[in-house]
Amino acid sequence: MWNRRKEEEHHTPKPASAPPTSSELAKEGIPMSTLPGRTVTEPHLDSHRGQAALGKSVIVKGQIFSREDLTIDGEVEGTVELQEHRLTVGPNGKVVASVKAREVVVLGTIHGNVETTDKLDIRKDAKLVGDVKTARIVIEDGAYFKGNIDIVRAEAPRQVPKLEPKPQVVVTNAPASNTPAMAAGVGDHKR
Amino acid sequence: METRHSHGLEQFCSSLEERPGLSILDFAGASQQTISFLTNYGHRVYSDDFVHQLDQCFADGDFYQNQANPLMAGKFLEAALDFNEGIFDGALVWDSLQFLTPQLLQTVVHKLHRVLRSGACLLAFFHAEEKVDTIPTYSYRIHDPRTILLASRAKRKPAQFFNNRSLEKLFQDYASVKFFLTRDHLREVIVRR
Fold first, then answer.
1. What is the mean pLDDT of residues B32-43?
2. What is the pTM of this model?
3. Which CATH class for the B2-192 domain?
4. Total structural domains in chain A?
5. In this structure, how many other beta carbons lie within 10 angstroms of the beta carbon of residue A92?
């Protein structure tokens, strides 16, 4: 016991090891939000202070679960889940994964299905290939999207207004003339 | 962006018959206007830019000669039309069919027939003016049940020109074909599966 006490008295705290970088954390599969006192050391992540971020040079293959907003500027393959938070795929971000989040903002690329409880925002020059299920969707001009869009809303959808039938003029195989006909029912052929 | 009244669109929208939850195929590429219009009525939308897919697959070299290459055509069909049978209640094909060679066009029209449910409508546009080398192309968006928004794209050379008879022959497997000829040399075609 004396030895132990002596050891304690003479114990000098080891120098704190440098906090693990986001790449090390991601590789170990440790949710970044569980580390108290984590400091951001990579200078290019300063803009994401206050939220988790994977930098441009980070590659993750696996599952990501986050209990805070997350920005991905690197590459992710697998699944990404942020149930009550926002995922931002930065302009350099490439995500090949199924994604679930409260909100998703895409400035880079996602190949995979996306499910949001609130909003999906696809910005200009972004690319999303996959099926999406969301309450709201915003697609800027210049964005590329390929896939199915399923809007899941709380309220009932609007009814398609019934269009009143207009009287139609039927022209039976008239010879072609130089002036095009007014828009009207021409050549209604039924089998 | 121009707006244009469209009788073809009017017919297409009336075919949706106040039923929410339909699945609509849109070849114009995803746009806020069309997606909002269709999803506000409770419908699902499958969006793809068909002409962009054509360029991705065939633009390296001679665009129309490449379409005769079975491997390239196969890859294109897999990329652009890989759907289960009978899953769509409507298809907005717009002007994209004009840029398919006759053989590939037949294949695409046949595939569309398979992926549409019985009674589903298909809206297609064909340029009616024959004595031109290139035709204007647009990105089409739905503004309301009667109005289309048109965003100009580059002019393109069409694969062939169509008249009413050739369009009837093209859609011979479908139940009905209806034409609307507009002032700006566009033939709007509503086809019922």
1. 93
2. 0.77
3. alpha beta
4. 1
5. 15
